[in-house]
Amino acid sequence: MSLRLSEKAKKVVAVVAPSLGAALGGPLGGLAGQILGGLVSGGKVADLEEAILTQKPETLLALKKLEQDYILKLEELGVEQHKVEAADRSSARDLAKVNMRPQMLLSLLFIGGYFIILSAFFVGKIEISPELKEPFLILLGVITANVPSIMQFWFGTSSGSQRKTDILAEQAVK
Hints:
The chain contains 8 helices and no strands. It is mainly α. It has 2 domains: about 5-75, no CATH class; about 100-174, no CATH class. α1 packs antiparallel against α2 (about 20-25) and α6 packs antiparallel against α7.
Protein backbone atom coordinates (compact mmCIF):
# COMPACT_ATOMS: atom_id res chain seq x y z
CA MET A 1 0.00 0.00 0.00
CA SER A 2 1.41 3.36 -1.02
CA LEU A 3 0.64 5.45 2.04
CA ARG A 4 -0.01 9.15 1.46
CA LEU A 5 -1.71 10.30 4.64
CA SER A 6 -2.47 13.94 5.35
CA GLU A 7 -0.36 15.74 7.93
CA LYS A 8 -3.32 15.76 10.31
CA ALA A 9 -3.69 11.96 10.08
CA LYS A 10 0.05 11.52 10.57
CA LYS A 11 -0.12 13.66 13.72
CA VAL A 12 -2.93 11.50 15.13
CA VAL A 13 -0.89 8.36 14.43
CA ALA A 14 2.18 9.98 16.03
CA VAL A 15 0.23 10.74 19.22
CA VAL A 16 -1.59 7.41 19.54
CA ALA A 17 1.18 5.16 18.17
CA PRO A 18 4.48 7.08 18.41
CA SER A 19 6.65 4.30 16.96
CA LEU A 20 4.44 3.98 13.88
CA GLY A 21 4.17 7.75 13.55
CA ALA A 22 7.93 8.16 13.61
CA ALA A 23 8.39 5.38 11.07
CA LEU A 24 5.97 6.84 8.52
CA GLY A 25 8.43 9.41 7.21
CA GLY A 26 11.55 7.28 7.54
CA PRO A 27 13.18 4.27 5.93
CA LEU A 28 10.75 1.90 7.68
CA GLY A 29 7.74 3.74 6.27
CA GLY A 30 6.84 0.83 3.99
CA LEU A 31 6.61 -1.58 6.91
CA ALA A 32 4.64 0.96 8.95
CA GLY A 33 2.30 1.50 5.99
CA GLN A 34 1.69 -2.24 5.64
CA ILE A 35 0.86 -2.51 9.32
CA LEU A 36 -1.42 0.55 9.22
CA GLY A 37 -3.15 -0.97 6.20
CA GLY A 38 -4.48 -3.64 8.56
CA LEU A 39 -6.58 -0.98 10.29
CA VAL A 40 -9.22 -1.00 7.53
CA SER A 41 -10.42 -3.66 5.13
CA GLY A 42 -10.00 -2.94 1.44
CA GLY A 43 -6.66 -1.19 1.81
CA LYS A 44 -7.79 2.22 0.51
CA VAL A 45 -5.81 5.17 1.83
CA ALA A 46 -8.94 7.35 1.99
CA ASP A 47 -10.68 4.78 4.22
CA LEU A 48 -7.61 4.50 6.41
CA GLU A 49 -7.33 8.27 6.77
CA GLU A 50 -11.03 8.60 7.59
CA ALA A 51 -10.75 5.87 10.23
CA ILE A 52 -7.78 7.63 11.82
CA LEU A 53 -9.33 11.10 11.75
CA THR A 54 -12.67 10.02 13.27
CA GLN A 55 -10.71 8.95 16.37
CA LYS A 56 -13.29 6.41 17.51
CA PRO A 57 -12.15 4.57 20.65
CA GLU A 58 -12.13 1.19 18.90
CA THR A 59 -10.03 2.63 16.06
CA LEU A 60 -7.54 4.17 18.48
CA LEU A 61 -7.35 0.89 20.39
CA ALA A 62 -6.74 -0.98 17.13
CA LEU A 63 -4.06 1.57 16.25
CA LYS A 64 -2.35 0.93 19.60
CA LYS A 65 -2.48 -2.83 18.89
CA LEU A 66 -0.96 -2.26 15.45
CA GLU A 67 1.87 -0.34 17.06
CA GLN A 68 2.58 -3.30 19.33
CA ASP A 69 2.61 -5.56 16.26
CA TYR A 70 5.02 -3.15 14.59
CA ILE A 71 7.39 -3.19 17.57
CA LEU A 72 7.27 -7.01 17.64
CA LYS A 73 8.05 -7.13 13.91
CA LEU A 74 11.06 -4.86 14.41
CA GLU A 75 12.30 -7.07 17.25
CA GLU A 76 11.92 -10.15 15.03
CA LEU A 77 13.94 -8.43 12.31
CA GLY A 78 16.60 -7.57 14.89
CA VAL A 79 16.79 -11.20 16.00
CA GLU A 80 17.16 -12.29 12.37
CA GLN A 81 19.98 -9.77 11.92
CA HIS A 82 21.78 -11.18 14.96
CA LYS A 83 21.41 -14.71 13.54
CA VAL A 84 22.96 -13.60 10.24
CA GLU A 85 25.85 -11.93 12.08
CA ALA A 86 26.41 -15.05 14.21
CA ALA A 87 26.47 -17.25 11.10
CA ASP A 88 29.00 -14.87 9.53
CA ARG A 89 31.26 -15.13 12.57
CA SER A 90 30.86 -18.90 12.56
CA SER A 91 31.91 -19.16 8.91
CA ALA A 92 34.94 -16.96 9.62
CA ARG A 93 35.91 -19.26 12.49
CA ASP A 94 35.49 -22.30 10.24
CA LEU A 95 37.79 -20.65 7.68
CA ALA A 96 40.37 -20.10 10.41
CA LYS A 97 40.38 -23.83 11.18
CA VAL A 98 41.43 -24.74 7.64
CA ASN A 99 44.45 -22.64 6.66
CA MET A 100 45.30 -19.13 7.79
CA ARG A 101 48.66 -18.75 6.02
CA PRO A 102 47.36 -16.68 3.08
CA GLN A 103 45.55 -14.27 5.42
CA MET A 104 48.61 -14.01 7.67
CA LEU A 105 50.92 -13.34 4.74
CA LEU A 106 48.68 -10.71 3.17
CA SER A 107 48.12 -9.00 6.50
CA LEU A 108 51.84 -8.91 7.30
CA LEU A 109 52.69 -7.60 3.83
CA PHE A 110 49.99 -4.93 3.99
CA ILE A 111 50.72 -3.70 7.53
CA GLY A 112 54.50 -4.05 7.14
CA GLY A 113 54.51 -2.26 3.80
CA TYR A 114 52.23 0.43 5.17
CA PHE A 115 54.55 1.25 8.07
CA ILE A 116 57.65 1.12 5.87
CA ILE A 117 56.12 3.59 3.39
CA LEU A 118 54.77 5.79 6.18
CA SER A 119 58.06 5.96 8.10
CA ALA A 120 60.09 6.53 4.90
CA PHE A 121 57.72 9.35 3.96
CA PHE A 122 57.98 11.06 7.35
CA VAL A 123 61.75 10.58 7.67
CA GLY A 124 62.21 12.07 4.21
CA LYS A 125 63.69 9.05 2.42
CA ILE A 126 60.92 9.22 -0.16
CA GLU A 127 60.92 12.28 -2.36
CA ILE A 128 57.69 12.81 -4.22
CA SER A 129 57.45 15.07 -7.22
CA PRO A 130 54.84 17.83 -6.88
CA GLU A 131 52.57 16.36 -9.57
CA LEU A 132 52.48 12.97 -7.78
CA LYS A 133 52.13 14.30 -4.25
CA GLU A 134 48.33 14.52 -4.28
CA PRO A 135 47.75 11.01 -5.73
CA PHE A 136 50.31 9.63 -3.26
CA LEU A 137 48.53 11.24 -0.31
CA ILE A 138 45.18 9.90 -1.54
CA LEU A 139 46.66 6.40 -1.83
CA LEU A 140 48.20 6.73 1.64
CA GLY A 141 44.79 7.76 3.00
CA VAL A 142 43.08 4.76 1.40
CA ILE A 143 45.70 2.40 2.81
CA THR A 144 45.45 4.03 6.25
CA ALA A 145 41.67 3.67 6.20
CA ASN A 146 42.01 -0.09 5.63
CA VAL A 147 44.43 -0.79 8.48
CA PRO A 148 41.59 -1.01 11.08
CA SER A 149 39.84 -3.65 8.93
CA ILE A 150 42.88 -5.90 9.11
CA MET A 151 43.22 -5.35 12.84
CA GLN A 152 39.54 -6.14 13.34
CA PHE A 153 39.94 -9.33 11.32
CA TRP A 154 42.66 -10.57 13.67
CA PHE A 155 41.56 -9.11 16.97
CA GLY A 156 37.83 -8.90 16.38
CA THR A 157 35.33 -6.22 17.11
CA SER A 158 32.24 -6.25 19.26
CA SER A 159 28.62 -5.40 18.71
CA GLY A 160 29.11 -2.84 21.51
CA SER A 161 31.77 -1.17 19.40
CA GLN A 162 29.37 -1.09 16.44
CA ARG A 163 26.66 0.39 18.65
CA LYS A 164 29.08 3.07 19.86
CA THR A 165 29.95 3.91 16.25
CA ASP A 166 26.25 4.16 15.35
CA ILE A 167 25.56 6.47 18.31
CA LEU A 168 28.49 8.71 17.39
CA ALA A 169 27.26 8.86 13.79
CA GLU A 170 23.77 9.84 14.98
CA GLN A 171 25.22 12.58 17.19
CA ALA A 172 27.30 13.91 14.30
CA VAL A 173 24.16 14.26 12.17
CA LYS A 174 22.32 16.23 14.87
